[in-house]
Design goal:
- This protein is mostly helical and 178 residues long.
- The chain is built from eight helices and two strands, in the order αββααααααα.
- It has a two-stranded antiparallel sheet.
- Helix 2 runs parallel beside helix 4, helix 5 runs antiparallel to helix 6 and helix 6 runs parallel beside helix 8.
- A hairpin with a 4-residue loop joins strand 1 and strand 2.
């Protein structure tokens, strides 16, 4: 039952994401000639077979799942991102955990998001993007001290010049002014 549900989620939610690159010039193979490969609707480009095929459970690697989940999350399609990211084989990939946290947080499930962020940091304490998002989550629940703690951790790892430091510092500044 669970396997069938995953296949359905992949077919309904993720298929358009993975089929789309096959329609882009220079993407999806084509024998290295720089041309485009066009798959029919409902098919995806299989890099190994170098042809269009019907999607099958397990044919997408975690990097593709991460990229699709990331893109969905950045597009504000949080529930779809969660569905796609949940298909990852490696449930301990900090990148996957980070965007599961991000998507849950932006869907209003801040506490669930916090759990994913904490797990990602348990695996990779130097992942400063997680720390930025974790700091933002702390601000969402009114925990200024928690956000400032994450800002200090980012500074310790990358200095004040990093993108993550600047983004969280700006969020803290706005929080304190409101």
């Amino acid at each position: 039952m669970r396997r069938r549900l995953l296949i359905q989620v992949l077919a309904v939610v993720a298929l358009p994401l993975f089929a789309a690159p096959a329609f882009t010039a220079g993407e999806g193979g084509g024998g290295g000639d720089g041309g485009s490969t066009k798959c029919k609707k409902g098919e995806v480009w299989d890099k190994k077979l170098k042809k269009c095929v019907a999607p099958k459970y397990g044919m997408l690697d975690d990097n593709n799942i991460y990229e699709a989940g990331h893109d969905l999350a950045m597009a504000g399609r949080y529930d779809e991102a969660i569905a796609v990211l949940s298909l990852a084989a490696n449930k301990q990939d900090p990148r996957i955990l980070n965007y599961l946290g991000y998507s849950h947080r932006h869907s209003g499930r801040v506490t669930v998001g916090l759990g994913y962020y904490e797990e990602a940091l348990r695996i990779n304490p130097d992942y400063t993007l997680v720390r930025e998002y974790l700091g933002e989550a702390h601000l969402q629940i009114g925990d200024l001290a928690g956000a400032q703690e994450q800002l200090a951790e980012i500074e310790k790892r990358t200095g004040k010049g990093s993108r993550e430091y600047g983004m969280l510092a700006e969020q803290i500044y706005h929080f304190m002014r409101s």
